[in-house]
Every structure is written in C-alpha cells, then in structure tokens.
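Bit of a strange request maybe. I'm writing a small parser for structure token strings and I need a real example to test against, not something I typed by hand. Could someone generate the tokens for this chain?
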Amino acid sequence: MRDRKTESLRQLELMLNDSEGFLPICSAEGCKKVRVLVDGQEVWIGRDDDPSLYDRVIEHYGNSPDLNKSGFTHTVCPEDGKRLYGEYWEDRKTILYAEDHERVRELWAGILRKNFPECDLEPFSDGGALEARLRKGAGNIGVVITDGSLPIKTGYEIIRQYAQREDFRGVPFILHSTDGPTIGNSVVEQKAFAYLDKIKSSETEFVMTVAYALNHSDSQPTASSQ
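Reply from user aminoacidic:
Good idea to test on real output. This should exercise your parser:
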C-alpha cells in the first residue's frame, strides 16, 4: 500500500502539468480527498498525505478557466460512503462506461460521478476491456453505457452479444454514440435499453436516462417490452 500511495502522489504531481482533465473529489462535508487510480485501484489522497502537493492540486483544479475541459468531478470516498449510506453502500450498483476518446470519457464520467455518487463507476477505453469485465458476470452491474465505435470490439457487438443473454437479462445497455437514430433504433431492437446521441442529447437527458435504467436494473429492459 505504501508503494501505491507513493505512485498516487507522483501521478498527482504530473497532473499539475496538464492544463486539461478532471479529478474526482469527495463531496462529503469536511472530507475533500481526491481520487487517483493506480493499477486500476482507487487511492484517496487527503491533505495529511502531502500538504503542499494537496494544496497545489486544489488550487489547480479549483480555479480552472474552462470547466468543460478541467476541474473537479464530485463523488464520495469509501469511508464517507459507508458513513452516509450504511448497508446500501455495500450493495451499491456499478456503472460500466466505455468511450475511447479520453476527453469525452473524462467529461461524461465526471457527470456520472457527480450525479450518481452512490454507484461505483468503471470506465473503459476499448471494447476488449469492457468485454473482459462483462465476462466476470452481471454481478452488481447497474447499467452498461457504451460508445458504438470502440477499438478491439465495438459497442454494437457488445450489445448484440450480451444484452440478449439470459444471465444479463436485468442489466440495461445504453448506446451512447453519434451514429444517428437509424442505427440507434436498430440497436434498441437488439435489446438495448436506450440510444442517446452523444452530441444532441443534453446532460439532463443523459442523467435521466441513466437514472431510469438504474431503477430498472434486475427487471426487464424497456426495449424488450416494446
């Protein structure tokens, strides 16, 4: 754990040289720890870990000139999650989100973290990584959101293969792409929960669709009843 903490501090130092990007911060009162991923594992850094570095990070991300490209995304650290949500925190659902464009992924992942702090979020940059996660089983997956044109394996292939499987019957799949309604509707016909245009859909529509999908997890997807 000592090495992981050291690596997380190193990553924070490097992030100060990047003019763009989003950093998750715990929104619980009195906390404000920031989250860094090291080898796919979360590490939460507070002021006590390195006061000088922490203060510079807070200053850097807290005064971003363009909040569409840089700033904080609000979430809840595990310690405060357990304190605030109790037993519900242990049973929280996981959102899988796949997008190969880094800046787009950071933007929408930040929106998901801000609006669904009670959920875990696992982002993926290609379809191969997403499929590797799905192969582990449906488990506590609350919703899968994927772009259509992903490297290695496309989002269309993922939806076509998994949305109709019996063991994923209660997991909603959302296509989040710019392919237009013709392709979007055809994917919905293949048992996707919904199609959202990445450019035309507003943040509100995106959040409401994800919330609706999470509320319908473990039940029949909307598309299957149409």
